[in-house]
Amino acid sequence: MREQRSPAELLVGLEVADDAAVYLVAPEIAIVETLDFFPPIVDDAYASGAIGAANAMSDVYAMGGEVMFALNIAAWPEDAPLSQLERIFQGAIDKVAEAGGVVAGGHTVIDREPKYGLAVTGLVHPERILLKSRLRAGDALWLTKPIGTGVLTTAHKNGALDAADLASAIASMVSLNRRAARAAVDSELHAATDITGFGLAGHAHEMADQSAVAIRIHADAVPLLPAARQQAETGISFGGLERNRAYFDDGAKVRFDRVDDLTHTLLLDPQTSGGLLVGVPRAHADAWQRAMKTHDVRATEIGEVIAGSGVTVVR
């Protein structure tokens, strides 16, 4: 295959593995482009659409952008009720509208397993892009949502999660990262990612690796969704979690220092529509606090960036 040469206008592309592509179209305007789709993880069709939309748009927010419009990506079984697909679409339409954007079209194919997501187009100022590679030693690490959606939605599939705990998980997943992104941009932060399939520890490793630094996470400071620890205690296991264990929990990428097995599980738990993980330099700490208050962001300081490599999780 012939090597592809990227134009200078492609500010973030294949050469830099980040959350979305960024293309410069004018001196102060860049387009953010991303897509994401997956099978439904909850039974309610409307909630599934809203979750899929929030998850897809999260990559735009992880780059510091704002959503303009989106296109549906759907796969649907021939024998499944179209009314359910319409509910999925409506959940997404409403969630994109909440983000200030619009669903402008899309494409649906026939498949045995339903899947849904969005291709999302956003805008960002080229000098205010948030990147995984911009952490620096001395930064504090903040997380803007609690974790645990993987174990909770798996427990839901197994019929082992009560309605209240499912509702709190759904509320977290449909919550947009828009305000957190605005707070990060307003306080002139430079480094962020969103927490999705690789789990908190896995995405922290991506940031550490691309920034050529080390990260220390304080496990006791990491916020958890209600019942997440309880479900982890059951020994729950599923494909995404085991893949994260196999790849990240190797003593080099992620090291767990006197941390119990439940914490291993929760920090490697694949998230859907998780929060932003942001690096806050000391010089920006006051501005970050003010911006969080202005935008009503409830984030938690969970660690710090230091010299070295890899991620270490401590009590």
Structure write-up:
- This protein folds into 2 domains: 10-124, 60s Ribosomal Protein L30, Chain: A (2-Layer Sandwich); 132-314, PurM-like C-terminal domain (Phosphoribosyl-aminoimidazole Synthetase, Chain A, domain 2), CATH 3.90.650.
- It has 10 helices and 13 strands.
- It has helices at 45-62, 82-98, 149-157, 163-174, 178-186, 199-211, 228-232, 239-248, 261-268, 285-294, and strands spanning 10-12, 21-26, 29-38, 66-76, 102-110, 115-124, 140-143, 191-194, 214-218, 254-256, 276-280, 300-306, 310-314.
- It has a 7-stranded mixed beta sheet with strand order 8-11-7-12-9-13-10, sandwiched between helices. A 6-stranded mixed beta sheet has the order 1-2-3-6-4-5, covered by helices on one side.
- Strand 4 (66-76), helix 2 (82-98) and strand 5 form a beta-alpha-beta unit.
